[in-house]
Amino acid sequence: MAESTRFEARDLARIAIFAAIVIVLGIAGQIPLPTGVPVTLQTLGVMLAGIVLGPLRGAAAVLVVIVLAAVGLPVLTGGSGGLGVFVGPTVGYLIGWVPGVIVTGLIARSQAAGALIRWWRVALGATIGGVLVVYAFGIPGLSLVTGIPLADAAVSNVVFLPGDLAKVVVATLLSVALWRAYPPAFGIAPARAAEEPADALR
């Protein structure tokens, strides 16, 4: 089923909620690293936005956060914000959230395999979109800003992998639980939602 490009009032509410979730996960704290790129929970919010909202609405939620950061609001990790973050070592990761959430949503909400939400598709989407795609933008950005070789920038990301894979597991568990408990959160027609939650564990 193709995702509608028309945003209704409840879509805007869901987008606002997930933008707030991403912000709260960032403000919750960070673990600083010598590379200048801290370990945070915000990518967990990006994964969840793609899975629950889908690619378009998930991207809208992430773009809200980025725009708020651009105008100076402290919505990013550790309460940071302002144009300075767009010239810092994390800029590539921040930009990567947008294609990352889109890819996550496209894979996790793919209709090729039948039921809308299945754990393995959610996990695959979160891994490819929420981790690999974000890294694909973040690593070159880190190299460009800090001046370190691209290969060294890539190696420095190894420290993030265990935490990011843990976020994939958490995002998968939360999404499947939400699908089974309250399918309307995913913006699915009630009749179809009532038929498919049991398929989530397949």
Q: Can you characterise this structure?
A:
α2 packs across α4 (119-146) and α2 crosses α6. This protein has a single domain (9-201), classed as Arp2/3 complex 21 kDa subunit ARPC3 (Orthogonal Bundle), CATH 1.10.1760.20. The model has no long low-confidence stretch (mean pLDDT 87). It is built from 7 helices and no strands. Helices cover 63% and strands 0% of the residues. It is an all-alpha fold. The protein has helices spanning 9-27, 42-70, 91-108, 119-146, 150-156, 161-181, 190-195.
What would the keywords be for this entry?
202 residues; Arp2/3 complex 21 kDa subunit ARPC3; 7 helices; mainly alpha; single chain
Structurally, the number of domains stands at 1
Query: Based on helices, strands and strand pairing, what is the structural class?
Result: mainly alpha
Rg value: 17 Å
Supply the CATH architecture.
Answer: Orthogonal Bundle
Counting DSSP E segments of at least 2 residues, the number of strands comes to 0
Distance N terminus to C terminus? 19 Å
Helix content: 55-70%
Largest sheet: none
- Oligomeric status: single chain
Low-pLDDT stretches are none
